[in-house]
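Hmm, what's this shape?
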Amino acid sequence: MDLASPRSEPAAARADADPGPCILTRPPRQTAPLVIASPHSGRAYAPDFLALSRLDSRALRKSEDCFVDELCAGAPGLGLPLLAARFPRAWCDVNREPWELDPAMFADKLPPYVNVASPRVAAGLGTIARVVASGEPIYRGKLRFAEAVARIEACWRPYHAALAGLIAETRAAFGACLLLDIHSMPRLPGIAHGHGPDIVVGDLHGAACARPIVQLVEQALRGEGFILRRNDPYAGGYVTRHYGRPREHVHVVQIEIARALYMDEAELLRGPGFAALQAGLTRLFATLAAAIPALL
């Protein structure tokens, strides 16, 4: 998959250049200590990936947080930067450590620094996933470790360089930073359609974000009419663990949005609730942008 360096653009930039592995949409001026990220909405399924896979692109998209980058598209107009990956989660998952790999996937021996024993690896969902979210194996045969290295260097590292840079810039400009790491989720087991939760808010059980900030996020979401849970079953992934350091004035909240709110999960199409949810998230960002500086 040919993905170059991250593309950074103002909110009204042209879209005809090589976009690279991720798109960073910057406002003309950042107006609040708030950063929005969509790490799993990438949908650039290159021919070389499809050639390696036993699945077609439709099946591979079962791991994708479909359209989350579009749901967050109002952020730059509010003066907030938006970072979105272009590459699919099934190709390289940036919400994992850089080297969480399943040795059974590879033809050669993995170096000792690779984490082969994490729960994510055991589930088949490491940095290079063995299965899609529905559990179907992705690959026809074994990969070479060099393939993992190439993906991590081309995708994982540029994404995190862009994210870390945004956090550092925001902290330098405002003294602190709140990152909203936004994902989507399938309907949770045992919960009937329409009975929530609509959104799961994750703060690593208080370790990644100060309590008043999480409470403000939840208050704003409830004000939009959403049914919430906190940390159950999604408390946060690598991004939340790695960047969430409240004592250093960097706070991270992971937001998981039920796909049934805005899309047809079977057909992978935007649903009738898409526009309303997009507007609701834009209002959430505006509310936080106005209130967060007093709490950070």
